[in-house]
Amino acid sequence: MYGENQSVVSEFVLLGLAHSQSIQAILFMMFLVLYLLIVTGNIAVVVLITTDHHLHSPMYFLLANLSFVDMWLSSVTTPKMIIDFLRENKTISFSGCMSQVFFIHCIGAGEVVLLVVMAYDRYVAICKPLHYLNIMNLKKCTGLVLTSWVTGFFHAMSHMVVIVELPFCGLKEVDSFFCDMPLITKLACMDSHDLDILMNADCGVVAVTCFILLLISYTNILVTVQQSSKAGANKALSTCTAHITVVMILFVPGIFIYVWPLSVTWMDKFLAVFYTVFTPLLNPTIYTLKNKEMKNAMKRFVNNYLDSNRNFYPEISTKYFK
After folding, report:
1. Strands 91-93, 11-14: parallel, antiparallel or unpaired by DSSP?
2. What value does the mean pLDDT take over residues 70-92?
3. 317 and 239: one domain?
4. Mean pLDDT along residues 58-85
């Protein structure tokens, strides 16, 4: 059936975000800058955590993985969108379209599970501090990260098993800037109502389960914080505020795209942009600006860089680094 479908519909047409050439030129520049910031910001977080021994702890190990995931979440769709702003014929091959569907759901579901793991890490750190290093050791953290990727893989495969068997024929216009499950099922030569319900339920199971686990973790954290010292409570609340903000930024658009669709075209496109572009941009920003240790690590990195310049260019350093 895969080969048969591809022979009938070998490519899809992406309608994109705008039709005006002047608007597309503005969007090209805007999203190019945003994507460069996403890649740079997330790579910077990974490099800081990897190179600074002060950040070699379970919390920052998980944060580095979140930044890695965010970078790839945006890379699945954003480069193609940026290139299409310069093209009149915005097409994508059948295999390319299926790849976007797979990786969006694989990475997206994996990130949701990773956020649950991060919430569990904070729960253990705040509610069971004496046992923290025994519970959240490197082996346990690595296993939890692998679990998030495995969950994302099986979630994406559950979609792919269905979508590659759909009978595509006439219509092949995707009213967005990338291929996604709800948009592709509308193009099938069949009544997709029951299939949409099934796919929404599939996404709902992942989202609702993770949301309940997050709610349990943060409820226990808040109860424990109320009983601790004021200084400890403020530090815990600061960390948890950053986590909760990231959770809301990821979950709200995802819920309205996959679990409870609004069926409003411009809103769907806005949420899709927010989910694939602004979420990967905001995550490193939030964690960096609200985290004192990350800011200190940035200062140490800059100071080490300046020190290396002084040693490497002694004449220049004497003149400029007095």
Report:
1. antiparallel
2. 92
3. no
4. 93
DSSP state of 290: T
Domain co-membership, 190 together with 278: yes
| Domains in the chain, number | 2
Integer Cα distance of 12 and 2 in angstroms: 15
Whether 189 and 153 share a structural domain: yes
CA distance 86 to 100: 20
Measured CA to CA, the distance from residue 290 to residue 241 in angstroms comes to 9
Residue at token pair 């290139």:
83
Where in the sequence is the domain holding 147, given as residue range(s)?
2-290
* 217 and 301 fall within a common domain: no
Which of 66, 140, 134 minimizes the C-alpha distance to 288?
66
Q: Are 113 and 147 in contact (CB under 8 A)?
A: yes
**Mapping DSSP to helix (H, G, I), strand (E, B) and coil, where does residue 146 land?**
helix
Q: Has residue 270 got a pLDDT over 80?
A: yes
Q: Which residue has the tokens 């047409």?
A: 13
Q: Kindly state whether residues 176 and 316 are assigned to the same domain.
A: no
Q: Which residue in the block uniquely carries the two structure tokens 């990821």?
A: 250
The DSSP letter of residue 92 is E
Residue 186 to residue 276: CA distance in whole angstroms: 21
Same domain, 301 and 259: no
- Farthest-apart Cα atoms in the chain, separation: 75
Three-state SS at 91: strand
Whether 63 and 43 map to the same domain: the answer is yes
Same domain flag for 313 and 230: no
Q: Range with the lowest mean pLDDT among 102-106, 129-133, 283-287? A: 283-287
